[in-house]
Amino acid sequence: MKIIYFSWVRERIGINHEIINLPKDINNIEKLLDFLSHKGSGYKDALSNKKVLKFSVNFEFVDITHKIKNDDEIAIFPPVTGG
To answer: For the chain, how big is the Rg over CA atoms in Å?
Structure first.
């Protein structure tokens, strides 16, 4: 699975993307966030407030309960503001 991080999520984690193989019990976005949060304090800080984050799977925006699999591309975005 390829995971891409944007904006302050990327800054807190310290990388812009990574490739990982998920354990079989990680099958949705919420479980993925919990899994990643255990990789270090930067991950925990960036991913702890799940309500403000946005997600896409294979270029389509999804909610936190969306099912995922190892060949997906996941993007994690902070809230976006505009004017």
So the answer is: 12
Q: How far apart (Å, rounded) are the C-alpha atoms in residues 8 and 16?
A: 10
- Written as tens digits, the pLDDT of the chain (83 aa) is 999 999 999 999 999 999 999 999 999 999 999 999 999 999 999 999 999 999 999 999 999 999 999 999 999 999 876 65
Q: What's the Cα-to-Cα distance from 51 to each of 17, 20, 75, rounded to whole Å?
A: 21, 24, 15
Global pTM exceeds 0.90: yes
Domains plus CATH for the chain? 28-83 (3.10.20)
